[in-house]
Amino acid sequence: MAHLNEQQIGQLRQMLDKRYDELREELHQEVNDRDGYLDVATEAPDPGDASFANLTLDLDNAATTRDVTELHAIEATRVRIEDKTYGTCVDCETAIPFERLKAQLTAERCTPCQEAYEKKHLDAGRGATI
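That's the TraR/DksA family transcriptional regulator sequence above. Prediction below.
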């Protein structure tokens, strides 16, 4: 993290905090919306309504999983900031450029290592990437 100055770290922390708050609000909204769809799914005498409600619940579950995964990534990033490993690639230990960190706040790898990781791990494309 030596390549990041205090101002950059402060800016990244602020961005992380903002995104964390946004995700928590999205999750809160998703839970509230899900309750309404559950009511429709359990009461719906019409198969079309029930099918739509079930599809909506499936999509909400995927969105919730994505948001929770990102919240965990933000929490892990905060730990890396505290232990001064944030901004250092977990694979090659080179500095991750500030611009990349601004674009992908939770980046653990430099771009070349992230590309290599995604080629080796098909599931890696499910989360945030380059």
